[in-house]
Amino acid sequence: MLALDRIVFMRNLVGVAALLIVGLAGSIASAQSVPFDTETCASFFPAQPWTTVGAVAGVTVETADIAATLGERILEDVARSASDIASEVAPLDGTSVCVFNANYTVADHGVVGEGQQIRAAVFLPEGIVVHNVAYLKEIDDGAAYGLSRIALWRRAKTAGESGFPEPLGSFVAGRNVATVTDSIRAARNVDSSILLARPPLGWVVAEQRDALAWNPSSISQFGGGFMDWAISEYGIDVIDERDPQVWDANVEEFLAQARFEATGSRAASGGWELGVIAFAASIVLTAITAFVSWYPKLKERRRRKTRRPTDPGYFESM
After folding, report:
1. Is 26 inside any structural domain?
2. pLDDT for 251-268, tens place per residue?
3. pTM for the complete prediction?
4. Which domain holds residue 161?
């Protein structure tokens, strides 16, 4: 009888443990997959006749009055970044990339000034990236930029934040743009030069706006090279760091490694102030050297110009 009671007790204990495990798994899953009420191209821009081209990594690509062959190319451009962003930053399920013919004027939803046409824009809560096909060559990096911002916003919302902080968000988006355009090495070099010559940045001084428009021809990649380095060093979760001092320390390490690659030494050569002063001094020294070498030639030219002409009566006749 005692043995039977033990069996019943153990069975009940296993059942309770199983329920706890299932409940915990459900809580984790719900915390990781916050539902988002998204729009489609047709619902957000109802005046245009949209055609679904395809989907990749949860992102639906739709076009308005664009040839089918061109639509396939656009889908390929979006695919270059969508999968990586969805797997690294946050899922992109339900998002849409809407590419419209330049002959249309899509509703701007207040993201651009009155009478202006949208060139590229992202609407975070709605999960919409919209792009003018007139900037066809920039659709791949425009999609990377817009989808990055949607994924960052979702990541912040899932963590219980009101939005992703800036300029961290711009740096992550710039990193994904530099990756898709195969310019990450150049972005690292540029960032090492700029960050070396300026004081520490404010890392979490603002928050993403729910809607943002930009010029596809001039997407900023500043900070993208540094952010690529930080993610490669510490993993993608580094973007969840909110302590400015940690980011300042990361910049110092980034610059130290850049110095080591360039000179073989991690030591700073005197700080950004001395660097700027040295650069200005070199310009002044170059100007003085050029003037010293050029001034005697100028005097010789003037001397030649004022010599008396061969005809002695030339000046007398003036």
Report:
1. no
2. 999 999 988 887 877 776
3. 0.74
4. 41-263
